[in-house]
Design brief:
This protein is α/β, with parallel strands linked by helices. It is 38% helix and 19% strand. Strand 3 and strand 4 form a beta hairpin. The longest helix is centred in the last third of the chain and has 23 residues. It binds magnesium ion. The site of magnesium ion has 7 residues, from loops. It catalyses: alpha-D-mannose 1-phosphate = D-mannose 6-phosphate. Homodimer.
Length: 264
């Protein structure tokens, strides 16, 4: 009996170039070849709209068995949305409000070369906090990023939060140019694994697998077989190897010879 296998992909840097749409040849290989052998799933850190832009709009739900946005805090199986937790249900309204109030106060006392709007964005499973404000222009983004490199605005902000809330089980992650993310410990990409049921092997493909990268925890997880990739082209290459190994294993099994699964 063949093993039931699912391939789970990070999006940026793994299936697509960062923030770009999937290339037709990559998608064709996934849907035309890989999908005949394995179920397919995607997990991104960004919101659902961004994923749709990159993976072909609504039809994304027909292409992939599971679609996970925001690390799996927004989850779909066969196009149907699954129940997940929220930040407020996790830490409680009272504490959440203390946290937000502290951040707003801190920002209000911060003097920067300039400030714009939307300082805190509330997502399903995380807060995105931007000292300069998310609706700055592309040019202002870069200016703030350079200012931040010199002055450690985001680093110092996170230190101040940790000092104020030493017991709060939050992870702080500086990504991009103007903001940092705050989310409960464990609500990294491994969060999505709780939704995946009925497989003997989950093969995860990601590009940011080193420590501190947003694929690190799920790549290292005991629940997955991890594949480190460098680009969408490398993902295709590694999938070809996995498919060849699987074919070989099937043939061996038919001859009832033991053959340990190797991971590329
Ligand atoms: Mg990535």
């Amino acid at each position: 009996m063949a093993k039931k296998v699912i391939c789970l992909f990070d999006v940026d840097g793994t299936l697509t170039d960062p923030r770009q749409s999937i290339k037709p040849q990559v998608e064709k290989f996934l849907l035309g070849t890989v999908k005949k052998e394995f179920d397919l799933a995607v997990v991104g850190g960004s919101d659902l709209n961004k994923l749709k832009e990159q993976l072909g709009g609504k039809s994304m739900f027909e292409k992939y068995k599971y679609v996970f946005a925001e690390n799996g805090l927004i989850a779909f199986k066969d196009g149907k949305q699954l129940r997940t937790e929220t930040l407020q249900s996790m830490i409680g309204e009272e504490q959440l409000q203390d946290f937000i109030n502290f951040c707003l106060k801190y920002i209000s006392e911060l003097h920067l070369p300039f400030k714009r709007g939307t300082f805190i964005e509330f997502r399903s499973g995380m807060l995105n906090i931007s000292p300069v404000g998310r609706n700055c222009t592309q040019e202002e983004r870069i200016q703030f990023y350079e200012y931040d490199l010199e002055n450690q605005i985001r680093q110092k902000f996170i230190q101040a939060i940790k000092k104020e809330f030493p017991d709060l089980a939050f992870t702080y992650s500086i990504g991009g140019q103007i903001s940092f993310d705050v989310f409960p410990i464990g609500w990294d990409k491994t969060y999505c694994l709780r939704h995946i049921q009925g497989y003997e092997e989950i093969h995860f493909f990601g590009d940011k697998t080193a420590e501190g990268g947003n694929d690190h925890e799920i790549y290292e997880s005991d629940l997955t077989v991890g594949h480190r990739v460098t680009s969408p082209e490398d993902t295709v290459k590694q999938l070809k190897i996995l498919m060849a190994l699987t074919k070989e294993r099937k043939e061996r099994e038919q001859q009832s010879l033991p053959f340990p699964m190797q991971c590329a």
